[in-house]
């Protein structure tokens, strides 16, 4: 990555850390609250989801948490990326983001060229989320970046199990 691109990515991450998007809470119920915790560094994330089961959309999302700049910026970026999207698209973004983190990690470790994960990225525009790909240079920080995404996935899975398979929450 060039120095200018790294500087831009650093600014995107700091912007989301300093001014997180969708910060706050939603009333539970009707919203669903899921909490994530990274015991390695103490990062904490709470994701409040308001999913329209009939339309299959993430109607609203709010986030709370504390931790390092990577975990909190990733949480903000995740909330901005999925708010208003279909649940299927949110799940595609989860897979794509986690694939992006894994592909770069595998390349750094020389395990593979990442082609086995490329299908999850195909056709998905990550936009600002690509700023977090530099995190893979620091393997211990990958869990910081993926905490919000794992928490979102857990929340969507819990909502699906609560409302049943008739809801459109799977891709």
Quickly list its features.
5 helices; 16% strand; alpha+beta; 171 residues; Sufe protein. Chain: A; 46% helix
Give the strand content.
15-25%
CATH top level class name: Alpha Beta
Major beta-sheet overview? 3 strands, antiparallel
Q: How many helices does DSSP assign?
A: 5
Content-based structural category: alpha+beta
The CATH architecture would be Alpha-Beta Complex
* Number of self-contained structural domains: 1
The CATH topology label is: Sufe protein. Chain: A
Oligomer: single chain
**How far apart lie the N and C ends?**
33 Å
Helix content: 40-55%
**Residue ranges: pLDDT <50 for 5 or more in a row?**
none
Q: Reading side by side through the largest sheet, how are the strands ordered?
A: 1-2-3
Instruction: Please give the radius of gyration in angstroms.
Output: 16 Å
For the residues shown, what is the average pLDDT?
85
What's the helix-strand series? HEEEHHHH
General form: globular
Structure description:
By secondary structure, this protein is α+β, with helices and mostly antiparallel strands. It has a single domain (3-163), classed as Sufe protein. Chain: A (Alpha-Beta Complex), CATH 3.90.1010. It is built from five helices and three strands. It has helices spanning 3-18, 69-82, 87-109, 118-121, 142-163, and strands spanning 32-38, 43-52, 57-66. The chain has a three-stranded antiparallel sheet, covered by helices on one side. Helix 1 packs across helix 2 (69-82) and helix 3 (87-109) runs antiparallel to helix 5.
Short description:
This protein is α+β, with helices and mostly antiparallel strands.
